[in-house]
Design brief:
Elements (H helix, E strand, L loop, with lengths): L6 H14 L4 H15 L8 H8 L7 H11 L3 H7 L6 H5 L7 E10 L19 E4 L12 H5 L5 E6 L16 E5 L19 E5 L4 E9 L2 E5 L9 E4 L4 E11 L9 H6 L2
Parallel strand pairs: 1-2
Antiparallel strand pairs: 1-3, 2-3, 3-4, 4-9, 5-6, 5-9, 6-7, 7-8
C-alpha cells in the first residue's frame, strides 16, 4: 500500500487541486449542495469551514465527502484516497493472497455495450473460496477476470462464475480455481450426442442450499443430473428440478491455470 501522507501535506495537495479549478472554499460548499440534492443525502455536503480544516491538516474527510471532492475537483476519487494512504490500484497485485475454495457466481449481468474499465476487485470476507459460486459485482471491474472473456462476449449480458478450489466436478476439463463466463440466456439443458467432451454443453447451476455447481447436465423427468467428468472423483448428483436447482446459464468461456509456478521450478527443469 502507498505510504500515508501527513494530513498537512495531503491538505496542501488538495488545496492545489482546488486552486487549479479556480474555486474558493465557498464555491466548493455551493457545488457540493448540488450533489446533496442529486443524491438526496446530506452526507455529501462539504461545508466551507470543513474544507479549510482539511486543507490545514485539522480534518480528514469521510467517504461521501471524498466523492464530492472528486467531482468538484475534477479528478479520480482514487487520487484523493491515495493522499490519505489508500492506494486502490494495489488491490490488483494483492488478489493472489486470496484463494477461494467454493464455486460461486462472479458477477451480476454485465452489459458489454458499456466500455470496460480497468479491473480492480476486492473480495468480501464472507466469500468462501472452496465453494463453486456466482461472484457478485461488489467491487469495481472484474478483478483478475481476464479481459478477453469480456471482449469476446459481444453485446450480450453475461455473468461470471468462479469454480471453487475444492470443486473437481469437471476436472481436468475445468480445473478448480477457474473463472468461467456464463450466458444466462442459454438456461435450458440441451440433449444430444456430442463428438467429444469438449463439445458437450457445460452449465452453471444454482442449488437451493445457496451453493453452485459447474457441470454437464442431463434432464430426466423431474430430475436434473449433475454429470461429472469421467476422470473426476465426484459422483453424479441427482436433484429435484426445478425445486432444488436452477440453471443459471451455459458456460461459454473459461480462464484457468494449467500449472502452478513454484520457486526453483525453472532450475529443476534445467537439470533434466
Amino acid at each position: 500500500m502507498l505510504a500515508q501522507s501527513s494530513s498537512t501535506e495531503a491538505g496542501k495537495r488538495l488545496r492545489a487541486k482546488r486552486e487549479q479549478r479556480h474555486l474558493s472554499i465557498r464555491d466548493v460548499e455551493r457545488f457540493s449542495r448540488r450533489i446533496v440534492e442529486e443524491k438526496k443525502n446530506p452526507a455529501y455536503l462539504v461545508p466551507h469551514n470543513w474544507v479549510s480544516d482539511l486543507e490545514n491538516g485539522r480534518s480528514k474527510p469521510r467517504l461521501a465527502k471524498f466523492h464530492s471532492l472528486s467531482l468538484i475537483y475534477g479528478c479520480d476519487i482514487t487520487e484523493i484516497l491515495s493522499l490519505f494512504g489508500l492506494n486502490i490500484s494495489d488491490l490488483d497485485h494483492e488478489q493472489g493472497l486470496i484463494v477461494l475454495p467454493h464455486t460461486h457466481l462472479s458477477g451480476r449481468a454485465i452489459s458489454l455495450v458499456q466500455p470496460m474499465v480497468s479491473p480492480s476487485m476486492k473480495l468480501p470476507d464472507q466469500v468462501l473460496l472452496e465453494r463453486t459460486n456466482l461472484v457478485h459485482r461488489m467491487f469495481q471491474g472484474l478483478g483478475e477476470m481476464p479481459l478477453f472473456l469480456a471482449q469476446h462476449a459481444g453485446t450480450r449480458d453475461v455473468l461470471y462464475g468462479y469454480v471453487g478450489t475444492e470443486d473437481y466436478t469437471l476436472d481436468p476439463l475445468i480445473r478448480p480455481g477457474a473463472f468461467v463466463q456464463i450466458d444466462p440466456h442459454q438456461n435450458k439443458v440441451i440433449k444430444g450426442t456430442w463428438p467429444s467432451e469438449h463439445d458437450r454443453p457445460v452449465y452453471f447451476v444454482e442449488l437451493r442450499d445457496d451453493r453452485y455447481a459447474c457441470s454437464w447436465c442431463d434432464h430426466e423427468g423431474s430430475r436434473l443430473l449433475l454429470v461429472p467428468s469421467p476422470k473426476s472423483p465426484v459422483p453424479i448428483r441427482y436433484l429435484r428440478y426445478p425445486q432444488d436447482a436452477e440453471i443459471v446459464g451455459r458456460v461459454t468461456g473459461i480462464a484457468m491455470r494449467i500449472a502452478q509456478f513454484e520457486p526453483g521450478s525453472i532450475e529443476d527443469t534445467r537439470k533434466i
